[in-house]
Design brief:
Shape: globular
Radius of gyration: 12 Å
Mean pLDDT: 94
Largest sheet: 3 strands, parallel
Distance between the termini: 8 Å
Strand content: 15-25%
Helix content: 40-55%
Number of strands: 3
Number of helices: 3
Structural class: alpha/beta
Strand order of the largest sheet: 2-1-3
Length: about 80
Amino acid sequence: MKAQIAMPVFRAMEPLTARGIEALVRDYGWPKPIIHLEDGVISRARSILASKFLKTGADVLVFIDDDIVFDPFDAVALA
């Protein structure tokens, strides 16, 4: 199973969020996230990201917002 992170980023990414993403890529071998920048309409941003996801060949789409602090292990368990 291949998971892909998608991130709608409106203004700036929370530093702890960036660390979590970095750990998923570095420690768990996840691909770099698909990022959509500076779109204040979250539904449009998620739709654009979902369309890009369909072109990746991944099986699982994991949305992580720019202000969500998470444990990378939890994302691995979820996917």
